[in-house]
UniProtKB/TrEMBL annotation:
UniProt-recorded name of the protein: Universal stress protein UspA
Predominant subcellular localization, coarse grouping: cytoplasm
InterPro entries from the UniProt entry: UspA
Keyword field: Cytoplasm
Annotated compartments: Cytoplasm
Amino acid sequence: MDKLFIISQRNQQQTDAISAGILLANQLGLLPEIMAYSYESFSGDAYYNPRIAGAARVQILADDKTRVQLLLGELDANDVPFTNIWCKTLSEHACEHVHPDEYAMMLKSIHESAHFLPMDWQLIRHTKVPLMLLSNNPLNRTKSILMAVDLGSNKPSKQALNQAVITQAHKLAASTGHDLHLGFVIRLPKILRDMDLVNSRTLIKDAYQQHRQVIEEIGLDKNHVHIMAGDADMCLFELSCRLKAQYLVIGARQRQGLLGHVIGNTAESILARIRSNVLVVPHHDENQ
């Protein structure tokens, strides 16, 4: 059976990844596995004295191990395997450790701030398996899932990513019993909308007709298919708020750029706004 890799961090004032991860693993039929990451930057005597730093490190690791053990006891989940390690580069370690042949998903709570930390972006850009990010800024959620699909692309890589998103979203909906919705945005620059140079209602109506066969193959009720015209990040953010979606499933085309690995401006803009839990489905773009 595939595993769900749960990232636990010390002193996290955020949605508890362990309890949420074990619940999701049970729903998806996966084996939960916890990696408890510990790290502390020392100053003063601990910084200059390796013996003091070593003792502090041992104590921190012991405290974190105890914390996880107590929580697992409260959850009646003492059989869930966990490892606690001292690690400064969490994202690098997690992405190297979690391979698709052994793990089906990775899960992490995002920081207590309203924005993703650099660590979160590194996980998004480099993960080899679907990555569930638990929001700390939740909506008054209902039992609904929104998947973002680009119906208008003919590129093989985009179509492969669409299929991966649809597959993951269907699995999540079937496991949780949540309603599944599809969101597709026809990109229409604001200046064209403001100048009334394009009739957005006609565009949307035509899109429903053009993609009717694909929509039918996906198997959703027509009331659960939402086609919009505008800026993708804002449209999907507003739709997720309107649906009060508990999960957003979105694809990330990982590719190598001048500044390292990137996932595209649209995906990053959507992720920066969203307040639902986010399931990021990766696809490495070989066309550099």
